[in-house]
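HUMAN: Can I see a protein plus its fold?

ASSISTANT:
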Amino acid sequence: MTNPNARFHVSSHPAVLHKLAILRDEDTEPKKFREVVRELSWLLGYEALADARVRPRSITTPMESMEASELGERIGLIPILRAGLGMVDAMLELMPTAQVWHLGLFRDERTLRPVEYYNKLPDSATVDLCLILDPMLATGGSATAAIDVLKRWGAVRIKLVNLIAAPEGVAAVQAAHPDVEILCAALDRGLNARGYIMPGLGDAGDRQFGTGHSD
């Protein structure tokens, strides 16, 4: 039986901890907020690719020929609209050849359940490793729904990359999809009555795009 804790990773890198403090601060303006989301996404993306497969590649340096390596997997980036959009550019810096496929899911504020409204995936899977990008893992509803969609699509290897997670969301994803690895920058205390992560950072989409106020 798979140990779920082996598939859940919280970064302890000092640079991650430093940037998280800036991200959480209610005085951080949208421009700076977007910059830090990008920087954290780059750091988490680096960790998410730690076990990616490579293949040999023959190159010639200024000194001699040698056998080097190149990424041997087709990578798919799946940002959950809209907050996940802020994580894409950093991931593309790491993986310029990655495919980007968008999923639109919003949380019904009455039921806290995800509602799918946008899906542009092709007919069958075209990548080897899918990275789902969403700043917040709260109830786990949207993440679980996204994983369901990708598995029906034919995806085999899926990882979930979040900036901040709540124990409830982690438990929900692990219960529904114990094979999916979760990587995040912080595991917070829990959810409030409205389903927001505490202490969290408020609404990640609103704070990125300046469309609301953090709670």
Notes: The radius of gyration is 18 Å. Residues 83 and 134 are 6 Å apart (CA to CA). The chain has a mean pLDDT of 89.
